[in-house]
Design brief:
Shape: globular
Radius of gyration: 20 Å
Strand content: 15-25%
Structural class: alpha/beta
Number of helices: 4
Number of strands: 5
Helix content: 25-40%
Length: 154
């Protein structure tokens, strides 16, 4: 599972990308309903993914995120100093316990592009009050070749 967040003045979003053992990619975008710090948004993205994994009864999961702070707090390498983050940290740790075998790894932002793109999309779409569903299609247009006589038809 890859997680990321995006925030700006007008919205905050979270992106979660699951990659199954068969290589299937399952992308999710979440528009956060409140403005918050980048670190809270990062925890939100992680928790959304964890809750989805718990719901599907996953028992082994690798989690990748580009927030050095959040990943290292969950690994116990960094102390959680802000009380507001402690609530999210404790819940994320509890979810990790429910999931069983969870590996956490920090990765560079450049290696987390899909989750980042989904988070940016959600943060941009957060300006609307309605849920937005956006199909992403793979496609390519191959223009037909026309003779000179056929050009006059249009």
């Amino acid at each position: 599972m890859y997680v990321d967040r995006a925030s700006h003045k007008k919205g905050v979003g979270a992106g979660v990308v699951f990659v199954t053992s068969e290589g299937e990619v399952l992308p999710y975008s979440f528009t956060l309903m409140q403005n918050c710090s980048n670190n809270v948004a990062e925890y939100q993205a992680l928790i959304f993914g964890q809750e989805m994994a718990v719901d599907t009864k996953q028992r082994h999961m690798k989690v990748y995120g580009d927030s050095q702070l959040v990943i290292n707090q969950l690994l116990g390498l960094y102390e959680v100093k802000k009380p507001k983050l402690l609530l999210y940290h404790n819940y994320a740790k509890r979810l990790m316990g429910w999931l069983g075998d969870v590996e956490l790894e920090h990765l560079p932002r450049r290696d987390n592009k899909q989750a980042d793109a989904l988070a940016k999309l959600a943060s941009t779409l957060s300006m609307t009050d309605k849920e937005v569903r956006i199909p992403i299609c793979k496609s390519w247009v191959i223009p037909p070749v026309f003779s000179d006589d056929e050009d006059d038809m249009f």
